[in-house]
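hey so i finally got around to running the thing on that chain from the lab meeting. sorry it took forever, my laptop kept dying and i had to restart like 3 times. anyway pasting the input first so we r on the same page abt which one it is
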Amino acid sequence: RGHADMYGCILVPPNDEEGDFGIIFLHNEGYSTMCGHAIIAISTLAVQMKWIDVKEGENRLKIDAPCGRITSFVKVKKGKLMGVRFHCVPSFVVGLDRTIEVGGLGKVIYDLAYGGAFYAYVDMHKNSFDFDLSPTSYRELIAKGMDIKHAVMDADKGIMHPFEEDLSFLYGTIFIDNTEQASGTDSRNVCVFAEGEVDRCPTGSGVSGRMAIHKDRNEIDFGETMRIESITGSVFKATVVSEEDYGPFKAVIPQVEGTAHITGMHTFYIDPDDPMKNGFMLR
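ok and heres what got predicted. didnt touch it at all, straight out
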């Protein structure tokens, strides 16, 4: 029916009359709280499929996700979609340079932050790994990413959202190479989330958490932009828009900009006599 890295969305009514629609995210483990690239994709579809009244200039969408309301902005020039950006929910740092013992890896240094979902952020230059962030390390990244995720889930008691208990879980591990890439981008992300799913994009919620980390370390200021690429080379631009108190945390409102493209229209059929009608997964 698909593949282990496939991602989906279900559109539902918004929480109130001010919203345009709600969204539920689907992946290989079940449901998630936030997906930035899905927000960009749905915003692209909303304009290109004329789900909303489209005007020249900037079109604003209010989308209710499980993590909260996301505002996206779709620029249209002479009838052509020129780009999508969104403002994420308040994103914050729980802890920097935490350490944990992981089987097969030894001591791992990580940051814990939230950007619509909680992630363990692992800097490749602070840890001694025998793999890199290239596509050839895909399977190793999945295995080690899941090992780190499970270790942090079991030991770190800081995975607590200040207002919503349902958001208090670790979604994944994000490996970071925080140096300029050959392509000219500022950094590379590889996100391993859910049940070993690898993100083809730089991860919108993950990048949002990174903005909180970089702001906390005084590595980025308001209005400055980072260009972050994924394992496939796709790029998001990320900016810190503002800062606010959020429970016990000093949170930032990140802006993430990227692109999405319609690749086709697909319909799944279920034959009641098909023994694999509900799909199957080997990984």
